[in-house]
């Protein structure tokens, strides 16, 4: 598990053109939800294209601990025999969610209205992250939680036998919080209502509908009002997980900044609540096109084609777009360093409570590579040096954060000097084939002796 093993120092050396087809793995958000909803349905859910990264494998393990049967065929097809809404059994042991905030927060929601007690833990990164944002609304159902100071893991939740339905306005833009409340609402009688002021990824709502729950979303002056009718019988589904736009971001951005590149990234989910990075890159002048646009499994999908774009300009990223690209700001900052002019990113304080403080992690590493970055509590800006002008040469700390590690390795592909990261092991949480995939396109990535 990431952060539990030996660190893997890695270096990315400036490389020639990146070319070819980049088949990135399945969507992490949709993969977690497929396993959890599969475990809450009655009967067998079949999943293809599941992301087999450590985060999702930890969720699969957790679903087994709650009594679901979860198996994998040799060809990578997964089967989940669910126990039904409210049917989770009490696990015999602590649930270790590794590095995954999504895993732990969604599972907390799913067990919160079952009469069981569960202790959760994670790695050094996850055990620093705030959980009160989930346990506060779960307390409204009647769920109790006791954790470390500041609402940190390890933490025990005592699920409630007779939950009441909840009406909750989500105070931070967070799909994890929204989803936790909805999953808890599944086993509450009556209607649970979640209101979000800013739209966040809507995979939970789409998937609940697919599994046969009664769920509606209304856009009102108050925001998006999501109403779920409790205690449905969820019907098992056949799910084809689309490829992850957040993983696609790495080969796409690498191609845009590496001279002569032309990379095709096929079958990428372009749900509007996730695709903000690609819109931003196009506004910066990236040669990024959508080919073969289609709908697959209820989600919009396209093949992305990214070509070297030496004339990109820094922009002010619209704040209202933040939630739709929240995981992509680290790699956007790498593109911004290679653009002309300043890129300003505002309304992004959530970046400070991800797997790491992503503003701090990127700002320090970019500065170590010769890039000027300014930052405040909920904003940061990167002064672009223009294509090919980033000095590089730094060793950057990844802080147990997969996206930080991958972003700096992308930076090294187009810098003047190599860029190193102290630990590439967290990459396995979301993008286990990152090294061979990027190497196959022409990147020069090497593991150093520790
Ligand atoms: C996710 C939601 C986002 C995102 C995370 C995945 C999800 O977190 O950063 O990688 O699958 O619901 P927040 O809900 O904290 O914004």
- Here the CATH topology of the largest domain equals UDP-n-acetylglucosamine1-carboxyvinyl-transferase, Chain
Got a strand count?
24
Structural class: alpha/beta
β-strand amount? 25-35%
Q: Please, could you describe this protein's structure?
A:
By secondary structure, the chain is α/β, with parallel strands linked by helices. The protein has two domains: 10-26 and 242-447, Enolpyruvate transferase domain (UDP-n-acetylglucosamine1-carboxyvinyl-transferase, Chain, Alpha-beta prism); 28-240, Alpha-beta prism (UDP-n-acetylglucosamine1-carboxyvinyl-transferase, Chain). 28% of the residues lie in helices and 28% in strands. The chain contains twelve helices and 24 strands. It has helices at 28-40, 54-65, 101-111, 132-141, 175-185, 203-210, 245-257, 276-283, 329-337, 358-368, 402-413, 434-441, and strands at 10-13, 19-21, 42-48, 69-72, 78-83, 95-96, 117-121, 144-148, 152-158, 167-170, 191-196, 215-220, 223-229, 238-240, 262-269, 287-296, 299-307, 316-317, 340-346, 373-376, 379-385, 395-396, 419-421, 444-447. The strands form six sheets. The chain has a four-stranded mixed β-sheet. A four-stranded mixed β-sheet has the order 2-15-17-16. Helix 3 (101-111) links the parallel strand 6 (95-96) and strand 7. Helix 1 (28-40) packs parallel to helix 2 (54-65), helix 7 runs parallel beside helix 9 and helix 9 packs parallel to helix 11. The radius of gyration is 21 Å and the shape is globular. The model has no long low-confidence stretch (mean pLDDT 97).
């Amino acid at each position: 598990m990431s952060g539990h093993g030996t660190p893997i120092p890695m270096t990315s050396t400036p490389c020639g053109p990146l070319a070819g087809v980049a088949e990135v793995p399945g969507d992490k958000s949709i993969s977690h939800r497929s396993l959890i909803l599969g475990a809450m349905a009655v009967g067998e859910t079949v999943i293809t294209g599941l992301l087999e990264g450590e985060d999702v494998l930890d969720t699969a393990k957790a679903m087994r601990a709650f009594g679901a049967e979860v198996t994998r065929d040799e060809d990578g097809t997964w089967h989940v025999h669910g126990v039904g809404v409210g049917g989770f059994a009490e696990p015999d042991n602590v649930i270790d969610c590794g590095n995954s905030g999504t895993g732990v927060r969604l599972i907390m929601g799913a067990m919160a209205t079952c009469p069981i007690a569960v202790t959760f833990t994670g790695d050094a990164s996850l055990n620093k992250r705030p959980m009160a944002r989930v346990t506060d609304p779960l307390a409204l159902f009647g769920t109790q939680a006791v954790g470390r100071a500041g609402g940190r893991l390890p933490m025990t939740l005592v699920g409630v036998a007779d939950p009441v339905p909840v009406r909750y306005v989500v105070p931070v833009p967070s799909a994890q919080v929204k989803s936790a409340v909805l999953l808890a609402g599944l086993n509450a009688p009556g209607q649970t209502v979640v209101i979000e002021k800013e739209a966040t990824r809507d995979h939970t709502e789409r998937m609940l509908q697919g599994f046969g729950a009664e769920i509606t979303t209304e856009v009102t002056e108050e925001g998006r009002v999501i109403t779920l009718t409790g205690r449905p019988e969820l019907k098992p589904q056949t799910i084809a997980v689309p490829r992850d736009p957040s993983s696609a971001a790495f080969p796409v951005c690498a191609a845009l900044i590496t001279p002569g590149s032309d990379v095709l990234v096929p079958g990428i989910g372009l749900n509007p609540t996730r695709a903000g990075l690609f819109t931003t890159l196009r506004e910066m002048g990236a040669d990024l096109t959508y080919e073969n646009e289609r709908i697959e499994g209820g989600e919009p999908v396209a093949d992305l084609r990214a070509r070297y774009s030496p004339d990109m300009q820094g922009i002010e990223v619209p704040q209202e777009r933040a939630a739709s690209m929240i995981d992509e700001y680290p790699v956007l900052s790498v593109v911004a360093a290679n653009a002309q002019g300043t890129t300003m990113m505002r309304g992004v304080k959530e970046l400070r409570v991800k797997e790491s403080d992503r503003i701090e992690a990127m700002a320090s590493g970019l500065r170590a590579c010769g890039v000027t970055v300014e930052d405040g509590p909920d904003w940061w800006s990167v002064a672009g040096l223009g294509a090919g002008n980033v000095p590089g040469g730094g060793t950057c700390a990844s802080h147990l954060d997969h996206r930080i590690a991958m972003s700096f390795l992308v930076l090294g592909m187009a810098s003047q000097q190599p860029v190193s990261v102290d630990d590439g092991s967290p990459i396995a949480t979301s993008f286990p084939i990152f090294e061979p995939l990027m190497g196959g396109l022409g990147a020069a990535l090497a593991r150093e002796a520790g």
